[in-house]
Design a protein that fits this description.
Layout (H helix, E strand, L loop, with lengths): L4 E3 L3 H8 L10 E4 L4 E6 L2 E7 L17 E3 L10 H6 L1 E6 L1 E8 L2 E8 L5 E11 L5 E11 L10 E3 L1 E2 L4 H5 L7 H8 L6 E4 L19
Parallel strand pairs: 4-10, 5-10
Antiparallel strand pairs: 1-2, 1-7, 3-4, 6-9, 7-8, 8-13, 9-10, 9-12, 10-11
Amino acid sequence: MCGRFALQSSAKDIADYFEVEAPAEFVSRFNIPPTTPVLAKTDQGLTFFSWGLVPSWAKDANIGNKMFNARAETVDSKPSFRNAFKRRRCLVPASGFYEWKADVGGKQPYFCHLDHKLFCFAGIWEHWQDAMGNELQSCAILTTDSRGAMREIHDRMPVVIRDQDRAIWLDHHDENTERAFDCIARLQDGFQVYPVSKRVNAARYDEPDLIKPI
């Protein structure tokens, strides 16, 4: 699964990575939890989504509190996610994510990264509006079976789209979703992992020392 991640890049680095204008009001974050705003790239540019997808038909936005991940194996068939997968895909930039491994004395958090370089989670997003006209744009991050070093920590990991597949993933005009599934099959691998402080367990703690190895 993916329940916490970091985005330590600068606004300029992110703009250069996506070849777009720098995101407004952006700050680096080292402990991003669900239900908070996350930066995302759509086919229209960079924007912020609430992390936790709220389907358009939902009566209560609180459903998003538990919908921050979507299994890649069922994303095209589960009612909560299938329309977003077909028509509203996005990329969620990150510089690493946290995963917890069961160990003696409790669960030990690990930081998982690709040489600390910027990469993108596969995301889907949705637009929701209640009876009073209040609107919300929200997203979920796809997960799949773990590969490589991740297998030693957890049986699931986020889907990371390779740089060369980003345009395909965002192409919602192609309603043949086989190409999107091909992107998932070719997901970026080769994560490096190391243990970090258990301070990451507290969502309110958001400091650079969280990504330092212990």
